[in-house]
Amino acid sequence: MSRSGHDASSTGHGLHHAAVEALAERILKGTYGEGDSLVMTEVQAELDVTQTVLREAIKVLTTKGLLDTDERRGTFVRPREDWNLLDSDVLRWKLAAGVSSDFFADVLELRRSIEPAAAALAAERRTDDDLVALDAALATMGATARDPVLLVRADASFHTAMLLASNNRFYAQMRRVIVPVLVQRDRDVLAADGASEHPHAAHAAVVEAVRNRDVDGAYVAMLELLDLSAREHP
């Protein structure tokens, strides 16, 4: 492929990506409300894209549950309950648009149903490499009392490592949902009054149970850790 052909392809991909992001932002922020039909000529003008680029962007958002099309209504915004929040892009757009305390409460309920069980499995199945990853996250967390940015990263690394240590492919995939929300919640807590209790000890208790292959202990320790999280972000 020629250099000019490569540049044209890259430009086209960039326009497509930008259109998807811009259209998703309008939907998630309510510029286009649930049930609204899109006037395609107006949307095309607003985004300043070709019909082809807009059509491809709509296909992407349709697969993610944000849009749908029928002969009577044309292209319209689907109800929020149809949006695929398990999709990493949709979740990212949702977090960027702003979320309520109810959203965090829903995710905490999800975490309580998944992470204690994942910790229990990790106690049973963990490898030496899993322990290395968990210990590294703990070490960073213990050294971050004065650095909230590193503390958020360490927390994300810990929960990622724990879900992976379950050695269950579905729990491992849940990190794509849990960790981005966890990062946003941590940032909100630290940007407000800050955490009242340093989280290192609660995380270390989970790791110690996993290290000792204490299945019940790992389950309970993770529940206690999530209770701490609920207190920090009621």
From TrEMBL:
Protein name: FCD domain-containing protein
Entry keywords, A to Z: DNA-binding, Transcription, Transcription regulation
Keyword Iron: no
Superkingdom of this protein's organism: Bacteria
Pfam families for the chain: FCD, GntR
InterPro entries referenced in this protein's UniProt entry, alphabetically: GntR_C (IPR011711), TF_FadR/GntR_C (IPR008920), Tscrpt_reg_HTH_GntR (IPR000524), WH-like_DNA-bd_sf (IPR036388), WH_DNA-bd_sf (IPR036390)
Residue ranges of every copy of the HTH gntR-type domain listed in the record: 13-80
